[in-house]
């Protein structure tokens, strides 16, 4: 029987609680903007910021600018600055891995498994998040969608990681929170897949976790990877 040698890991909402970070950042930014004179109900402001993310993508940089333009008809730069500063402070303070993520990766590395990071995030914010949380030191290869010019489920990102680690698809295990991206991409290449049940996949209110794409395994806690892989091997 072929043994698993490499673990492919998605980042946002698999290793890091990205959605929690986003929500706290937006709330903090809105509170600071209200403090600075923005005159609108808090709930409405929060919802409108997320509307901008829904329209432009969750990594969109000018979210508060667009929000203010829509809310006030123009950008009030004092309010914008207060919001951006509050957002950044919160982000730097709260971005962290889910419980036992790092200790589990360390255990896997000690057992000899290669660790690949496969993320659809653009390279710069991806590396910022990996370095801020120390996950960069635990990875043998990091591939972003930007590196290969295609997002999951496109096979390119998986193939790149396999080539870098010199492993075949039957020696890999993909772990992610989005069935349509992480699981489908793995399945298309006959890579075994694990769906994490704790990540909500996407912060967009329009996102529905598509459970019609069946993973080989599901886990409720990241640490469950260790017994799962022991069983497979
Ligand atoms: Mg994810």
Short description:
The protein has 233 residues and is α/β, with parallel strands linked by helices. The chain has helices at 18-35, 42-56, 63-72, 77-94, 101-110, 123-133, 145-148, 155-165, 179-188, 225-232, and strands at 6-9, 114-119, 141-144, 172-176, 192-196, 217-219. The site of magnesium ion (MG) has 8 residues, from loops.
Topology:
Layout: E1 6-9, H1 18-35, H2 42-56, H3 63-72, H4 77-94, H5 101-110, E2 114-119, H6 123-133, E3 141-144, H7 145-148, H8 155-165, E4 172-176, H9 179-188, E5 192-196, E6 217-219, H10 225-232
Helix pairs in contact: 1-2, 1-4, 2-3
Bound molecules: magnesium ion.
Proportion of residues in helical segments: 40-55%
Gap between N and C termini, in Å?
A: 8 Å
Low-pLDDT runs of 5+ residues are none
Largest β-sheet summary: 6 strands, parallel
Bound molecules: magnesium ion
Strands, total number? 6
> What fraction strand?
5-15%
Task: Give the mean pLDDT.
Answer: 94
Description:
It is a single chain. The protein has 233 residues and is of the alpha/beta class. It contains ten helices and six strands, in the order βαααααβαβααβαββα. The protein is elongated. The model has no long low-confidence stretch (mean pLDDT 94).
Question: Which key phrases capture this entry?
Answer:
233 residues; alpha/beta; Rossmann fold; DNA polymerase, domain 1; 12% strand; elongated; binds magnesium ion
